[in-house]
Amino acid sequence: MLVTNHNIESLSWDKMDNLIPAIVQHADTGSVLMQGYMNQEALSATLTNQKATFFSRSKQRLWQKGESSGNTLDVVSIVADCDQDSLLILARPHGPTCHLGTDSCFPEQDIADKNFLAYLEQVIHARKNDKPEDSYTAKLLASGTKRCAQKVGEEGVEVALAAATNDRDELLNECADLFYHSLVLLAEQNVDLKEVMKVLQSRHQ
After folding, report:
1. What is the distance between the alpha carbons of residues 169 and 164, in angstroms, rounded to a whole number?
2. Is the predicted pLDDT of residue 20 greater than 90, yes or no?
3. Residue 123 exposure: Cα atoms within 13 Å on the Cβ side
4. For the chain, how long is the longest CA-to-CA vector?
5. What pLDDT score does 60 carry?
6. How far apart are alpha carbons 155 and 177 in whole angstroms?
């Protein structure tokens, strides 16, 4: 169930003394960032302000994530599970989520294979915005559409040649290059990977 200010009261608040556990997941990469607890007031504040706000069981008060550090969580959506007694929050973090300075409170987790492209897309966008002088990605983006498109074409041909010669190692390397350069071209064209994924999903129906 998609949670809104209109259906907060329908959640199962009576199971944990008017608290519900909330897992926060990165909206783009799928990485699990943290877990907190919400009462109705915290959930309402989160939905209203689109900033993750929790109830501190130790301090017995509301606290907005990042209220002192500035490392806030911009909420994209909140859904309840089938029993309506736990929440999944999709959010985009500003800075490290954990108070220890790590991106996640679960720092040992690996980026799932299916989410690595989304993570790589984030890195490419960071290079596009920051323009570090020693970055190949930044230089390629600065070279313009024709060069970015040319690289995708070159890598596509190399993928085909590797497959035609049954060179498995070369095929893996060239496919990796093709995926990377395709993401660079998408970034140069201001197209998000999720838009491509939606097209793929629509074809799978």
Report:
1. 13
2. yes
3. 12
4. 66
5. 94
6. 6
